[in-house]
Batch of 2 targets.
Target 1
Amino acid sequence: MGKVVGQLIVGGKRKDGRGFLDMRSPFIVKAGTVQRADGSAYVGIGKTRSIASVYGPQLLHPKHLQEPDRAAMKVRYEMAPFSTTERKRPGPDRRSIEISKVIREALAPVLFLEEFPKAGIELMMEVIQADAGTRVTAINAASVALADAGVPMRDLVSAIAVGRVEGNLVVDLSGEEEAAADAVDMPIAMRAATGEITLLQMDGDASLDEVKKLLELARAACMTIYQAQKAALKERYKVPAEEAEAVAEAAPTEIMEEPAKTAQEGEAGKEGE
Ligand code: ADP
């Protein structure tokens, strides 16, 4: 530690051309990407890509796994063997077991699990390409997939990694930035609308002042992500134009116009690369 890694930031710009507060691009959020699942989503940010699938809520078997007053939630985060530059050994390891646990804790506060006693909800997140920020990308996809599955939720959870690279506070670290010797990596998940934090981890040492500033940066980025998540769900459930016209003809006074999409919301609905 303490070794200075140069050239990640030159002239106020990051190596990939981003400013300190810019998220990686392309940033894509799409709902309903896995046909067989009850709910699903794809989230890609830069070179990190994840798919989340949800099965349930449905009656849980075997019976001894049921909880009498709430749905039991099984959460699995996994990195595909082909997701990294060197083949990753398939199957769970200590890291993926820990990440599955923190993701469950990041999502649980927004879920009305008590509405489904004895049921099971299975949430699976597969990282298909990894270049840092996989847990936050998986959370962003999981949140949309749960909503897509019709699980009642208080809110969506949005997540981003913020940190410090060569002394600068930055948003959305790339793999290279995260690997720098003096880097601070702080993955954060929150309810963007209320600011309630549901996950906060930190790799590296930062001062209290830096942490406070990083929280503010995360809050702004999570708001952007939240808008993209909402746009993806709206896109998935939008009424086809012909159908909307037919309804409008039948009851013209009851139809309200859809609000115009922002440029960012439009971006979120685009196809993956
Ligand atoms: P996160 O992906 O949430 O940032 P980590 O900080 O543990 O979580 O991992 C940082 C990055 O290191 C990952 O995104 C991935 O690019 C890489 N990585 C993690 N585990 C492995 C592994 N087993 N093999 C190769 N690369 C890995």
Target 2
Amino acid sequence: MSYEFELIDHYFKPLSRPTAQGDLGIGDDGALISVPDGHQSVIVTDTMVESVHYPASTSPRAIGWKLLAVNLSDLAAMGAVPQCYSLAVSLPEARSDWLKAFSAGLGDLAGRYQIPLIGGDTTKSRQTVLTLSAVGHLPKGTAMRRSGAQEGDVVMMSGTLGDGGIGLKAVLAPEEVEFIDPDALEIAVTKLNQPEPRVSLGVALRELATSAIDVSDGLLADLGHVCQASNVSVALELSALPLSEAGRAWVAKKGYALPLTAGDDYELCFTVPKACVNKVQEVAQNLGTTVYAIGEVVEPIEKKVILKRNGKAVAMEEVALQPGYRHF
Ligand code: ADP
Ligand code: MG
């Protein structure tokens, strides 16, 4: 038996679970999964590269959690119930302490949703590259898309904006956030490393939202996708953006550019008809998540996000914006 198989058996096999009758997990050339009658599968994939998607200093346990969380966040944005996941790891070396903590981080989050690891691939490479695909399901035809926003809808989001970006500053450039309370920064760093995917909110929104997206590349960039896909514009009210204590301190001193563009927030942003806003707030409350109205869907004109402060248009330059994160 080669070390590769021992490694899979030791660190990854424990994350599998007994599968339903006729299904198959780790061990064969492929996994077999069943889709409940009348349902569709939703499949998402996200890759995390060391020093690109997370600082090299991030604990392996947090890396495992985050790798699954960012995928579950994509499933949540579609409104899917998570079913299982597959994992491809490429590592420069197989360090047992790293693998143990990484797989524990995956297991921490997977355990909450009772989802098994069903397969994957394990290779050696010069750089750490981690790819996870998650499978979810939902009743046929009920997925939330980026394309359903209607003029007159209210734009809403869950949680707070900007903590991922501020947390990243706290890790990589602490001198830039010295003016923020250390406890507030700690909360932002936890959000960066261990985001909470809004899975149950996403499932509940299927019945209520006209469109949804998860905030991973920065709210402006992500809402820009909704504008393009739905053929609308969005008027975003800056004073309504939900901020944590760290976020408020940052905005007071440096403005909105970072919260609007930094990304790594993994909150849901969605549009709902005006008549549904109260219902959405009530449903979210019952799930322990707070949601906020942050803007309005308006006529297309340029199919883009327009910024407002207290109802008055604000020029992009005024908030010193750079575009959202781009790899190329
Ligand atoms: P093959 O050579 O047929 O591609 P592998 O040797 O890559 O098979 O993998 C053997 C089994 O272990 C397969 O069922 C595969 O899905 C599983 N596996 C490999 N790497 C991982 C991993 N990182 N996590 C979970 N399962 C894995
Ligand atoms: Mg293989």
